[in-house]
């Protein structure tokens, strides 16, 4: 009986080993008839480094790297640190016009469901290792899923006859397909001593060959939430900088519609909307068009004429909501006119308060994103989104909001009251000017919660909208109409 049991265990272990090996990341490097080799990620760390020469004609040096996350599955062909480039070179004149290929198969992962979104980047440089003529008549990157059965796309570069930078990108959606693995095939036909170099992409920044697959709806929701957080963060850091560097009336600085860092974050959000939000998910994203720039920024629009001085853009309701929320917090704290005192202690107090208010605002967005990611599988619409993530009280899985609130109250006491700035409200002629020193921080926190709630209602097109009057302080008291 013991012998039989031992045999069963051994058979089971063999099966597990075979199964595990078949599921591991692997890369096959082929010189088109002069030899090939397959390397497998035997330690299952998602990394394969290689430096091989095949048949005396193909030298390949670089790294395959994968990261398999709940939302996005990513694989890249890049450099091995500390090297800054991966290298694929034909050595001399051998191998004729053979096609060199590098084929990568990711580890299998739980099915990424429909609609299946994907992006493929192909970035590098082509040239001749001996500074001779370049002759690469064909080069391409193809991506597929499910053991290559379902093709995603093939990016084909133009023939290369001189040192050339390669910068190609494609994205799309397969509405009826899911994925359990990814295959990437990099192919090129080089002339003598020709080579293609791929930059460092160990941070997964689309800087070399990179393929991403994801549930399109989940990716869109996550990108828009995180994009809104980044816009709000940039806008409030800009306001804090105005307070830090200015004296007297700094309202024009605070209300500057062309602040560069905020504009950069807005542009990225709008670009991501185009890439990841078609189709627009059933919840979590406002797919309407709003004005970007001009006097009506953030307002709903259907035609360019509705946006004098700006443009009518899909996704701008999201960026507009986040930016407007940040600006509203500053004015809630300071009032319509933002006036900075020249006295060092008061100025430092004012700067600290608006900085901490901004961090608390960002904490609300972070907690919102975390809840969405945790609840993707069970949220089916706005009612679920509100009840599971916004409450009130807002779902705060990691205590992010609580920690930011504690910091805000602590900083008010240490940087304001303890430095002789008392009553604190006297230096902030906004919504909290009448609050006592001990209540000033909580009052600011309520204003932040109000503005986040209103921004989230618009950014996610929540219907019916969340009751922000109750959300901000837990009481129906017209504090956030």
* Residue windows where pLDDT falls under 50 for at least 5 positions: 1-22
Shape: elongated
Percent range for β-strand residues = 15-25%
What's the average pLDDT? 93
Please write the string of helix (H) and strand (E) elements: HEEEEEEEEEEEEEEHEHHEEHEHHHHH
Biggest sheet overview: 6 strands, antiparallel
| N-end to C-end Cα span | 76 Å
- By DSSP, the count of extended strands is 18
Radius of gyration: 28 Å
Please bin the fraction of helical residues: 25-40%
What is the fold's blueprint, element by element?
Layout: H1 2-23, E1 26-30, E2 36-40, E3 47-54, E4 58-68, E5 72-78, E6 85-90, E7 100-105, E8 116-128, E9 138-145, E10 150-156, E11 164-174, E12 182-189, E13 194-199, E14 209-215, H2 216-245, E15 248-249, H3 251-254, H4 260-276, E16 289-292, E17 311-314, H5 316-334, E18 339-340, H6 344-375, H7 382-390, H8 400-416, H9 437-459, H10 468-473
Antiparallel strand pairs: 1-2, 1-7, 3-4, 4-5, 4-6, 5-14, 6-13, 7-12, 8-11, 8-13, 8-14, 9-10, 9-12, 15-18, 16-17
């Amino acid at each position: 009986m013991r012998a039989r049991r031992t045999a069963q265990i051994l058979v089971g272990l063999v099966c597990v080993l075979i199964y595990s090996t078949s599921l591991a990341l692997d890369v096959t490097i082929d010189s088109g008839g002069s030899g090939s080799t397959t390397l497998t990620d035997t330690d299952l760390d998602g990394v394969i480094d290689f430096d091989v020469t095949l048949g005396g004609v193909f030298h390949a040096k670089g790294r395959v790297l994968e990261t398999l996350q709940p939302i996005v599955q990513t694989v890249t062909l890049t450099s091995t640190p500390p090297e800054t480039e991966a290298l694929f070179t034909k050595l001399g004149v051998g191998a004729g016009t053979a096609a060199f290929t590098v084929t990568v198969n990711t580890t299998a992962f739980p099915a990424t469901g429909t609609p299946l979104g994907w992006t493929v980047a192909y970035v590098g440089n082509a040239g001749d290792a001996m500074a001779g003529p370049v002759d690469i008549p064909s080069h391409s990157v193809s991506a597929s899923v499910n053991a290559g059965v379902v093709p995603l796309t093939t990016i084909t570069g133009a023939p290369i006859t001189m040192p050339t930078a390669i910068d190609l990108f494609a994205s799309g959606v397969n509405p009826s397909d899911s994925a359990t693995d990814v295959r990437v095939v990099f192919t090129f036909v080089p002339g003598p001593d020709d080579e293609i170099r791929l930059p460092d992409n160990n941070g997964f920044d689309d800087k070399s060959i990179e393929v991403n697959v994801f549930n399109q709806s989940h990716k869109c929701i996550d990108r828009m939430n995180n994009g809104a957080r980044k816009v709000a963060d940039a806008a409030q850091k800009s306001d804090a900088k105005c307070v830090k560097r200015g004296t007297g009336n700094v309202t024009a600085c605070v209300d500057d519609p062309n602040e560069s860092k905020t504009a950069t974050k807005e542009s990225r959000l709008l670009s991501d909307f185009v890439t990841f939000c078609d189709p627009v998910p059933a919840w979590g994203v406002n797919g309407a068009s709003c004005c970007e720039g001009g006097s009506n920024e953030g307002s709903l629009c259907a035609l360019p004429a509705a946006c004098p001085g700006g443009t009518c853009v899909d996704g701008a309701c999201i960026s507009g909501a986040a930016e407007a929320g940040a600006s509203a917090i500053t004015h809630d704290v300071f009032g319509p006119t933002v006036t900075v005192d020249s006295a060092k202690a008061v100025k430092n107090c004012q700067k600290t308060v608006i900085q901490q208010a901004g961090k608390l605002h960002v904490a609300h967005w972070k907690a919102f994103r975390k809840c969405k990611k945790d609840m993707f599988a069970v949220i089916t619409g706005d009612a679920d989104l509100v009840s599971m993530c916004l409450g009130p009280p807002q779902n705060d899985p990691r205590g992010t909001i609580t920690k930011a609130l504690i910091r805000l109250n602590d900083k008010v006491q240490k940087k304001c009251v303890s430095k002789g700035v008392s009553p604190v409200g006297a230096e902030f002629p906004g919504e909290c000017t009448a609050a006592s020193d001990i209540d000033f921080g909580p009052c600011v926190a309520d204003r932040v919660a109000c503005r986040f709630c209103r921004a989230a209602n618009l950014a996610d097109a929540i219907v019916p909208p969340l009751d922000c009057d109750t959300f901000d302080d837990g009481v129906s008291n017209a504090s956030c109409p």
